[in-house]
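Lab notebook, bench 4. The sequencing result for the construct came back, and we need a structural model before the next group meeting so we can plan mutations. Quick request posted to the team channel:

Model the 3D structure of this chain.
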Amino acid sequence: MNKLATEFLGTTLKNPVLTASGTFGFGDVFQQFYDVKKLGGIIGKGLTLNPHSGNKGQRVWETASGMMNSIGLENPGVKHFIEVELPIMKKQTDYAIANLGGHSLEDYVEGASLLDGSDVDAIELNISCPNVKSGGMLFGIRCEDARVVVTKVRDVVKNKPLIVKLSPNAESVLSLAKMVEEVGGDAVSLVNTFNALAINVKTKRPRFENVTAGLSGPAIKPIALRMVYEVAKNVNIPVIGIGGIQTTEDALEFLMAGATLIEVGSANLYNPTSAGEIVDGLENYAKDNIKKNIDEIRGCIWR
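Done. Here's the predicted structure in token form:
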């Protein structure tokens, strides 16, 4: 009996461990370190409708207990992904999730429509992207802006589960999650990176050309965990927990806070076997602490 088997939107995953977008490529590179198929699923590199070269200048900066990145969604574009990267990705995993971003409402809708007709198993919608038509404010900051994007994408996504990835920089993450449920989103994942700043004291300038960048890693875990807890208690759709998960204990904390699945992100970059190690750790934990299924501990701190 597989005690880690997890029901998620009509599919039984072998365990609740996914890899976060942008930290695992499309899975093939990591096969040299371990059998990636042991994971519950893979979320691919963030996509935009058209190919994108990403941001100029400094892209990554290490911080205390974390890292900052300003990659800028460098990616091959949705059509290229469907034709080239997706078949590769499907060989690495039983559950392939495409992560979609966009810089306009039209890009989101067209990209989502193409992915809905592809072989991906689910779509994770990244609404932490700047709306170029509204002066660059992120779609996912204000609930009313996010509602428009999620509603329009939901209208064209007919065949695939729709997961919406929430930004911790939003006016209210809980309000966003409730809105996603209200307009028909199937699940939410949280949190994306925190908006942060690093300064080069020698040049007296920001380290990143865009001034601010996204903070991730262990430093954000306690805050991300709190947000997952607050959302999971108050919505009736699955919650995927993200934020500084690097050990089995971290993963267990998110599950106990109410997450259905978890995503391993930055840890993949400095320990390429981290996600696989977490699966092993959960299996060992389940032997001694789980009677039938991992559901027994999900949300246990408040249920």
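The two ends are 25 Å apart (CA to CA).
Will bring this to the meeting.
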